[in-house]
Amino acid sequence: MFNLTPEERRVILFLMSVALLGLGINFTSKVNSRIKKFVRVDNYITKININQASLQDLLGTQAISPKLAKNILAYRNRKGAFRDIEELKEIKGIGDYRYEKLKDLFVVE
Amino acid sequence: MRYPLVGLCLVFSLGIITLAETKIPLFVFCLLTFLFLTFSIIFIKQSTKFSILLLGAVFFLGATLLRNSQILSNCHIAKLIPYKSDSVYLIGVIDNDPAYRGKKVSFIIKVEELKINENWIKTSGEVLVKVFSAEGGSALPGKKNDFTYGDRLFLSGNLYRPFSFSKGEFNYRNYLKHQGIYLILSLKKGSIVKQLGKNISNPIKFFAFQMRHKMKGVIVKNLSPFSTGILNAIILGERQNLPAYVRDILVKAGTVHIIAISGLHLGIVAFIILLTLKIIKIPRRPRYILTILLLIFYCLLTGANAPVVRSTVMAMTLLFSYFLKREVNIYNSLSLAALIILAANPWQLFEISFQLSFLSVFFIVWLAPKIKSLFPEKLNKIPWIGFLISVFSVSFAAWLGLLPLIAYYFRVLSPITIIANMIIVPYMTIIVASGFTLALIGMLFSPLAPILGASCELFIIILFKINSLLIAIPGAYFELPRISFIYVLLYYALFILFFNFFNNLAANHHP
What are B395-446's pLDDT values in tens digits? Predict the structure, then answer.
């Protein structure tokens, strides 16, 4: 049927064997993969230190409008620094709903 | 058999098709492949037994590959969030070139970590991210967020399964599933986007995307938005800014293939590269190697989808055969391209672009010479008439080959396609060549770009006008009702029977 030379036959069989072995390994690793909980993600990656954030940092997220960013900076300048993340609620434009969205974004350090 | 790869490719595809919807576990397929493979090793010296056993092994290998791609790792994000979630937090790296459309941006992110119930989990998988207002969180008011390939991001938004809406035979959820995407992350106003630096896994891909942006910059600067949309689709494969009515006109005229980067484009690009390298006196062998490398780079630059990968693999086999001074077999190189694409992603077999791309090339190679031979040899020898006969044969062969699939997927029957492609395909050479000249000269010597841009603008408007005029001819196209796939298969079966009968008849007349 196929007019393959012995070399061509060997090459095809080799490639298919490697592919089958690879598939087997891939399948086994997928089935036996376990969820590793509690990966440590540093605060600096996911959170912004609100006492050091610049206007640029605040605007760099989708969550804060330019006006709200200026209000946050005005509050910080007035008070010197944030002592607790809940102080965000005292800023004009941040109600309970928005606070819930923002609290995970900031850290007070 | 003169075409061993064709046989292997057909059986491999058959394995994927027949076992796609079955519930047979993967280890059964693995075992069967292993058995057939072992016996083909035992019977390696017996031609017939070896061939049959090899076909069996290839058939089950196709099925194994497909079934394996359906199994997700336990850490896959789609297993952790199966349907829909409220706001989630995740960290990942952008894995493609983000597509901007107005204020919206979309990109694929390779997820690394996901926060569920206050715990961060190491995860895997890809998610399609849709940012609905790229200006919302920009660093400077009025300026867009600049997402690029390799950006590591911290995102919060809503994850959901893609909607299963259909347009014709196209299903959006399946389309994304075939690319390994099971979830969409929607980032609306109020979502968190934080850039955490860069993690470029493939520097060549990164460089290709940068080149793409530069070429796009030149095109945007020197052409009207209308022509920019068309030229970006033609030479960069970027179709998101192509006006819907232009696409509609191209579908009706049967010339929509011009906005998919294919063999036509690759051929012209390869010709430009070979010519440039010849002018600068690069010797023959390094010239072919450099052309192959540059074609791979162009493939990456355009996003490496099925038609461009197919064309690149075929062009590579052709160039390698010139390099080694060996004769090339077009059917084997076509099958090799299909095997490479299907081995990387077996779901491609069910994609419209894959089917149209491979079938059109097959019919052009197989049928066009037969159609051409129906004309008297005297006519074929007259230069201009011979050229017209060749163009007609290619266009008619592709039309006959794709007719049922176009009717099935797009519900259109366009007799005008034959004439349209006779005009458009040769004309595309001018557009692709002038488009590339504009993009490359524009990057190297910008003062010349407006002059080249003006010519490109004219060529594109003519292209659009030709298509518009052709579909305005009465009877140019007919809209069809939904047809069953059985009719498509029946058409191909009758087609092959008819040509076999015709061939036998011809053979009996000329023993």
Answer: 999 899 999 998 888 888 888 888 888 998 889 889 998 998 899 889 888 8
All residues of chain A having their beta carbon less than 8 Å from the beta carbon of residue B43 are none
Whole-model pTM?
Answer: 0.81
Q: What percent of chain B has pLDDT over 70?
A: 94
B354 burial class (0-12, 13-18, 19+ CB within 10 angstroms)?
buried
Note whether ipTM > 0.85 here: no
Q: Nearest-CA neighbor of B189 among B147, B131, B148, B129?
A: B131
B196–A45 C-beta distance less than 8 A: yes
B194 → closest Cβ in A9, A12, A61? A61
CB-CB neighbours of B21 under 10 Å: 6
Are A59 and B192 a contacting pair at CB < 8 A? no
The mean pLDDT of B338-344, rounded to a whole number, is 89
Q: Do A60 and B37 touch (CB under 8 A)?
A: no
Between CA B123 and CA B109 the distance in angstroms is: 12
Nearest CA in chain A to B146: A60
DSSP 8-state class, residue B297: H
User: How far is the C-alpha of B312 from the C-alpha of B334, rounded, in Å?
Assistant: 11
Q: What are the pLDDT digits (tens) for B165-190?
A: 666 667 888 888 888 899 999 887 76
Q: Which amino acid is at A81?
A: A
Rounded to 5 degrees, φ, ψ at B307 are -60, -35
Distance CA B261, CA B485 (A): 27
Using a CB–CB cutoff of 8 Å, tell me whether A77 touches chain B. Answer: no
Q: How near does any CA of chain A get to the CA of B119, in Å?
A: 5
Which of A19, A45, A59 has its CB closest to that of B61? A19
Domains of chain B (ranges plus CATH)?
4-70 (no CATH), 77-201 (2.40.50.140)
Name the residue among B125, B429, B36 with its Cα closest to residue B270: B429
CA distance B246 to B226: 9
Q: Which pLDDT tens digit goes with each residue over B114-153?
A: 887 777 888 889 999 998 765 544 333 444 557 888 888 8
Using CA coordinates, name the residue in chain A closest to B86.
A101
- For B281, the 3-state DSSP assignment is coil
Question: If you measure CA to CA, which chain B residue comes closest to A7?
Answer: B44
